[in-house]
Amino acid sequence: EKEKTLAIIKPDGLLGNYTDDIKRTVLEYGFRIFKEKTVQFDEATVKRFYAEHSSKSFFSSLTKYMTSGPVLVMVLEKDNAIADWRALMGPTDARKAKITHPHSVRAMCGLDTQKNCVHGSDSTKSAEREISFFFRELSADVITEHD
Ligand code: CMP
User: Which family does it belong to (predicted)?
Assistant: First the structure.
């Protein structure tokens, strides 16, 4: 079985109509979109999702941003999916991505360190947690869901 990772297209990605470009890039790089759904985060759910960042200075602005509109959550599958999706996203700071990784997803659609358009699991452990968070125990409102 191939490795799976969790990817999120954040509110600015959906609002800016980058979904099709991001999906095309993902498929070009050999990922399969195993599952996907559109979700509107509520505050409690996004705080649980980003619990590891709860002590950070940017936590409240992060939760505000992530509840500002729907997000598209995808389970991506390929060999080495976790590291490959992180490489394809590019650096957290989209301004830096535009300079150092011009072909990355964040260079294409991100704005800055917070509004960076996409999320990806950073390890095997977080991929497992994040995939089950959305596809087994989700309490946020699910707008659409399909395999
Ligand atoms: P993500 O990969 O989803 O993980 C945590 C998120 O917090 C990150 O992307 C950004 O959206 C946000 N973030 C990380 N660092 C900062 C920062 N220094 N200032 C504001 N937001 C940040």
Answer: Belongs to the NDK family.
The reported pTM is 0.93
Measured by CA distance, the residue closest to atom 3 of ligand 1 is 119
For 26-44, the pLDDT digits (tens) are 999 999 999 999 999 999 9
Per-residue pLDDT tens over the stretch 46-82: 999 999 999 999 999 999 999 999 999 999 999 999 9
Q: Looking at the domain that runs over 3-8+18-89+119-146, which CATH code has it been given? A: 3.30.70.141
Measuring CA to CA, how many Å separate 75 from each of 7, 44, 64, 104, 128? 6, 22, 24, 19, 11
Residue 101 designated active-site: no
Domain boundaries, the chain: 3-8+18-89+119-146
126: which 2 tokens? Answer: 């977080």
CA of 33 to the centre of ligand 1 (A): 24
